[in-house]
Automatic annotation (TrEMBL):
<dbReference type="InterPro" id="IPR044733">
    <property type="entry name" value="AP1_sigma"/>
</dbReference>
<keyword id="KW-0333">Golgi apparatus</keyword>
<dbReference type="GO" id="GO:0005829">
    <property type="term" value="C:cytosol"/>
</dbReference>
<dbReference type="InterPro" id="IPR016635">
    <property type="entry name" value="AP_complex_ssu"/>
</dbReference>
<dbReference type="GO" id="GO:0030121">
    <property type="term" value="C:AP-1 adaptor complex"/>
</dbReference>
<feature type="domain" description="AP complex mu/sigma subunit">
    <location>
        <begin position="3"/>
        <end position="134"/>
    </location>
</feature>
<comment type="similarity">
    <text>Belongs to the adaptor complexes small subunit family.</text>
</comment>
<dbReference type="InterPro" id="IPR022775">
    <property type="entry name" value="AP_mu_sigma_su"/>
</dbReference>
<keyword id="KW-0653">Protein transport</keyword>
<keyword id="KW-0813">Transport</keyword>
<dbReference type="InterPro" id="IPR000804">
    <property type="entry name" value="Clathrin_sm-chain_CS"/>
</dbReference>
<dbReference type="InterPro" id="IPR011012">
    <property type="entry name" value="Longin-like_dom_sf"/>
</dbReference>
<dbReference type="GO" id="GO:0035615">
    <property type="term" value="F:clathrin adaptor activity"/>
</dbReference>
<dbReference type="Pfam" id="PF01217">
    <property type="entry name" value="Clat_adaptor_s"/>
</dbReference>
<keyword id="KW-0968">Cytoplasmic vesicle</keyword>
<protein>
    <recommendedName>
        <fullName>AP complex subunit sigma</fullName>
    </recommendedName>
</protein>
<keyword id="KW-0472">Membrane</keyword>
Length: 135
């Protein structure tokens, strides 16, 4: 599975964490953040958790007041992406003790560190939450 980007977005549309894994200019990143966020927030709750954005498949899951949005290649497994999102959320929960939006606002550097322990260059590096948090 190749991940193009990961966004953590509040229900109000504020981006709390953004990580792009391909060479994308800042203007293009801002456009992708804006359009993908709007697309996900406007989708009805009964719809499935993935949709297409150009040549990228967008996979998302809502946890409390945060949307975890991942952009993957078209041929990649959407269910694996959902499981990867869930694994990242579990690691954040273990680290912060029931993670909330404020944890990500005030400790964003720690959330990025945990994300970087999971992925290198958009590819899964480590799946053991215990091993990630031990580092």
């Amino acid at each position: 599975m190749t991940m193009n980007f990961l966004l953590l977005v509040s229900r109000q549309g504020k981006v709390r964490l953004a990580k792009f894994y391909n060479a994308t200019e800042p203007k293009e990143q801002a456009r992708v953040k804006r359009q993908v966020t709007a697309m996900v927030l406007l989708r009805p709750l009964k719809n499935c958790n993935f949709c297409d954005y150009g040549e990228i498949r967008v996979v998302y899951k809502r946890y409390a007041s945060l949307y975890f949005i991942m952009g993957i290649d078209q041929g990649d497994n959407e269910l694996l992406a959902l499981e990867t999102i869930h694994c990242y959320v579990e690691a954040l929960d273990r680290f912060f003790g029931n993670v909330c939006e404020l944890d990500l606002i005030f400790n964003f550097h720690k959330a990025y560190f945990i994300l970087d322990e999971f992925f290198i260059g958009g590819h899964i590096q480590e799946t053991s939450k215990r091993e990630i948090l031990r580092r």
